[in-house]
Design a protein that fits this description.
Blueprint: H1 3-27, H2 30-41, H3 50-75, H4 81-88, H5 93-103, H6 109-113
Helix pairs in contact: 3-5
């Protein structure tokens, strides 16, 4: 998926989220609406549905992949097709985070992907 398609998909998901939120809020009584707003403002809300957790994680993964590819480009590292596929198919946020941290100071691409001693 290219950046334009990703942006379109993100826009569609954002619109669906707004529509869903509006529908839920309209269906609630005033007391429930106030309580939900309080929960949302605490900063400690955790997504309750598998649906929300899935799409939030996918967004994090896509963001980390873009960040890692930008670091490699900025550092002038050329990625082989195999490495690019490895990065673009990774779905583990912690692994991607680790690769980003290592890519910032690595002397070569291989240094990023070598197991830590």
């Amino acid at each position: 998926m290219n950046d334009v398609d990703a942006a379109r998909n993100a826009s569609k998901l954002a619109l669906l989220a707004v529509l869903h939120f509006d529908l839920v809020m309209a269906a609630m009584n005033e007391s429930a609406r106030r309580r939900l707003e309080e929960l949302m403002q605490t900063g400690s809300y955790r997504f309750q549905s598998d649906f929300a957790r899935k799409y939030v994680k996918e967004g994090e993964v896509r963001s980390q992949i873009r960040s890692l590819l930008k670091v490699f480009a900025a550092r002038g590292f050329d990625l082989s097709n195999a490495r690019r596929v490895e990065i673009e198919t990774c779905t583990d946020v912690d692994t991607l985070d680790n690769w980003i941290d290592r890519a910032l100071t690595a002397e070569s691409i291989d240094d990023v992907f070598e197991p830590e001693a």
